[in-house]
Design a protein that fits this description.
The structure holds 2 protein chains of 2 kinds. Chain A has 12 helices and 8 strands. The relative contact order of chain A is 0.19. The model of chain A has no long low-confidence stretch (mean pLDDT 92). Chain B is of the alpha/beta class. Chain B has one domain: Beta Polymerase, domain 2 (2-Layer Sandwich). Helices cover 18% and strands 34% of the residues of chain B. The termini of chain B are far apart. In chain B, 37% of the residues are buried. Classes of the chains: A alpha+beta, B alpha/beta. Chains A and B meet through β3, β6, β7, β8 and α10 of A and β2 and α2 of B.
């Protein structure tokens, strides 16, 4: 039997913008087991519901993550709106879809850049983030913010987009799509990338489901699971079918994200074509009484917010289960038996967001 | 449009049989969460099958703070149970992977428990 060695991976590592720690148990160059630990930057945001009113908590929810901030605020608002039986205007629902899908493009482009950098493809990384800048410009033009923009609120949205701007956005989406096509072709056709990620970090369809994986991680293993199929909010008006790959390896997870960027652009176009005129919010009176598990699809997968109101200005309970946390069991499965040199690629392939996990 | 959610309150003794039934029915584990109430911990075991939401709710007296693990039926539960152990101090028997309180790198044991006198560690 080969000698066993324990190698610490993280909390600081070039592929980890945020801290998570893995103790890797190795036999020669093979990983036998990975033991995770978290909590290095735990912020206790959930307990803030005792000190911030339920309307102010939207802004806290938005700060759970700096990448998918807007969708966090939508998930929170959706939960409170369900508890309070609020039906928000259709225009607000459409615009939530628009900014949500723009956030998904932003997140996937960010990940594609990081993934390119991790395989040493520096120019591809820079091009991915160059296109991402154009996405951030649309955020800035429509909300005034590039990362945190406070556009969602309980009862609707705070900011509208006028019809002239919607027309110019359609042109900008075409420009982004044209730029992105060159990038996407490299990810889907380049021999080096396919060779580096194919057959690495495999998780079977059965394992992905049984281990509770979510988002691109589960869809890359052949499971058609996407919370947008629940048709929550404005997704009830959209034509949408989840992107699925079947290989279950790092490359399949990348391809799901590559294709989802096109899908998100299509969803935004549907918004631009169908968005009705009208109000963007409704007046909210009273306080939430009741409970709801609000579920939405983040770029990294299903996120769950448990909200409970007791008829006061402050929520009684607020709990969050983030997609990265749900993907850790699948990650441990991918790592068991892999080569030590493949660990960074595998960890990156689930698009870990420790900021979300350390809510 | 909001999804319909089914939340079922069960006794602690019914937890494993109910979870076994859901495993046989090929549900997936969505999450396990814990919140502290006056004299009880409220544990929610959330499952999903083809977007059908199902939640089992167990009230656990704070003074007991121990219950069986469901990681034998749903392996992924070990992560949530280690988290709940580290944040609330609840002990799970039969954990498939027990990190022994080292999953969360935090200095203070069971920081999510409001009454320090009740802490088990």
């Amino acid at each position: 039997m080969a000698q066993r060695t324990i190698i610490p991976f993280g909390p600081q590592h070039p592929v980890l913008p945020e801290p998570i720690h893995l103790d890797l148990v190795l036999e020669d160059e093979k990983v036998i087991e990975a033991i995770p630990s978290v909590g290095f930057i735990h912020r206790g945001l959930e307990l803030l519901c005792k000190k911030k009113s339920f309307t102010d908590m939207v802004l806290v929810a938005e700060r759970i993550c700096g990448i998918c901030s807007f969708i966090h605020s939508v998930g929170f608002c959706q939960g409170v709106e369900k508890i309070m039986n609020l039906e928000i205007p259709e225009r607000a629902q459409y615009l939530r879809v628009f900014w949500g899908e723009l956030s998904r493009v932003h997140s996937h482009l960010l990940w594609l850049g990081l993934a390119a950098d991790a395989v040493g493809f520096e120019s591809l990384f820079m091009h991915a983030w160059r296109v991402r800048e154009k996405v951030l410009d649309i955020f800035e033009e429509t909300t005034g913010g590039r990362v945190i923009f406070g556009a969602s609120k309980v009862g609707g949205i705070r900011k509208d987009i006028n019809s002239e701007t919607l027309v110019t956005i359609a042109d900008k989406l075409t420009d982004i799509e044209n730029d992105y096509r060159a990038l996407a072709d490299v990810f889907s056709k380049d021999y080096t990338i396919a060779h580096r990620w194919s057959g690495v970090g495999c998780v079977s369809k059965e394992d992905a489901y049984n281990l509770g994986a979510v988002g691109p991680t589960v869809r890359a293993s052949g499971i058609k699971q996407d919370l947008r199929e629940l048709r929550y909010g404005g997704y009830q008006f959209m034509d949408f079918t989840p992107i699925v790959e079947t290989a279950g390896d790092c490359y399949a997870r990348a391809l799901v994200r590559v294709k989802e960027v096109y899908q998100s652009i299509d969803l935004m176009r549907q918004v631009l074509n169908k968005i009705p005129d009208g109000a963007i919010d409704i007046k909210v009176t009273g306080f939430p009484t009741g409970e709801f598990f609000s579920r939405v699809e983040q770029p990294r997968g299903e996120v769950v917010y448990y909200l409970k109101g007791d008829g006061t200005n402050f929520l009684d309970r607020f709990r969050i289960r983030t997609p990265t946390f749900a993907n850790i069991p699948a990650l441990l499965k991918m790592l068991a038996g892999c080569d030590f040199a493949d660990v960074p690629a595998i960890v990156l392939s689930i698009d870990p967001c420790i900021s979300c996990t350390e809510r | 449009m909001f999804e319909t959610q089914e939340i079922t309150n069960i006794a602690l003794n019914d937890l494993l049989p109910q979870v076994h039934h859901l495993a046989q029915e090929k549900y997936r584990l969505v999450q396990i969460s814990c919140t502290e109430q006056q004299d009880n911990f409220c544990l929610d075991y959330t499952f999903d099958k083809a977007y059908k939401f199902y939640d089992l709710r167990v009230l656990l007296p704070i003074k007991e703070a121990a219950l069986p693990s469901i990681s034998g039926e749903f392996f992924a539960a070990f992560l949530y149970e280690n988290e709940i152990h580290d944040l609330f101090g609840i002990k799970f028997s039969g954990l498939a992977l027990d990190y022994g309180g080292k999953f969360y790198r935090i200095e203070k044991p069971a920081p999510f428990r409001t009454n320090p006198e009740e802490k088990t560690e």
